[in-house]
Amino acid sequence: MPFAYYDRLSPSRKKIYRLSDGIATLGIPRGQEHGAAVLRIEAALRADDRASVQRECQGLLDVLAAGYRVPKLRVRVLAKRPVDGYGELHGLYEPEEGRTPPRITVWMRTAQRQQVVAFKTFLRTVIHELCHHLDYELFALEETFHTEGFYKRESSLVVALLAQREAADERAPRP
Fold this sequence. Notes:
Elements: H1 11-21, H2 35-46, H3 50-68, E1 74-80, E2 83-84, E3 87-88, E4 91-94, E5 103-109, H4 119-137, H5 148-171
Parallel strand pairs: 1-5
Antiparallel strand pairs: 2-3, 4-5
Helix pairs in contact: 2-3, 2-5, 4-5
């Protein structure tokens, strides 16, 4: 069932919406293992190390982009989430403009309490923004909409990454 804003879309945009909604899964590219990378992002976030979080997110997204055979994008991790009249902004995808490559911006601290964002929430935000990039570059959609299919793709990739993280954590040597 389409979201409420669907009725306000033009016929051409409704077609894009339906195409997006029809793509329900997004797996990890064949042969890729990201458990250790996801663990490094979690550790950097726990250590409140913004530069390391950015570096580890960039590494993960570089490998995912290569696996999906789409252009790389830049990741920028900033400290405190901005607030507007609607609430806190968690992440932002900015498509390529001219010579500027596509960019994802995510924030690692909440706006009100300035606490480090929970790991799974942070990872979901990063993957959410990656999914916008994939809508354009992998699925060749002219626009990227928040559809049920979009959220299912996001969720399926996050679940797969967390499963790899769990497996990598189980294999890690214990003191």
